[in-house]
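User: Structure please.
Assistant: Input sequence and predicted structure:
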Amino acid sequence: MRFFLMIIVFLLAGKSFSQKHNFGSKSELGVMGGVMYYVGDLNPYHHFRDFEAGLGLIYKYNITAHFAFRLTGLYGKLTGDDSKSTASEFRRNRNLHFRSNILEIGAGFEINFFKYRLQDFKHPISPYLIFQVAYFHMNPQASRNGNWTDLQPLGTEGQGSSQGGKRYSLHQIAFPIGLGLKFNIARGISLGVEYTFRFTFTDYLDDVSKNYVDPDILGAENGPDASYFSDRSLTKSGPGGVNTGSQRGDQATKDWYGFLGATLTFRLARMDRCPFNSF
């Protein structure tokens, strides 16, 4: 539902922006689709592992032949699973997993290497760089007997209990940076391929960052689900058969995620010919 509302907002915003400034002939509106993946505590090294589908919308205003403003909306899912690790015995024994839906809205710029104009074939192709700032909403979950549970309210590393601070926010900021290649396939229609990775300020895309806390105290204060999802180790090596105080994640690094996909954009006509005037 949120994604369809975002589509309506983009269409109306593109119409309103072009109508107010008469920028229709320099504006593009389109869609993008591809795959998303995550790198963090549950997948520290491998790109394009456990990738999931990502879909979105894109609006561009071509300021010059080398420079364009862009506004994007992206919806997809990130996943990670310790049990799939083939190189780390620590991760296989830790036995954590997660999934998280991501809703992202970003704004920034494209810088074309060559002169590029969507409306003609004199300058029909260019590689480009992408620099954006984005807001995204996440919600890490884990499964128990096929039932998926939101992890942030549980405070699996002691958040919201006497063993930790406040719960991390599900609303975060990221910096998408990447590169792409676009080319005209018809007058006013462009096809592009791009890859962007996102630096974030959170280490909790996967709900994993610091050390294990006391499961008995956590269970008493945050509930039995918090204790269960906090420590799913196959073998608990700590004193008394618990892992309290030992490493659960790596808080020295932040999590990040990437998107690889294609874009298809259409030049908006001037407002006296704009198809969105019927809205």
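The two ends are 20 Å apart (CA to CA).
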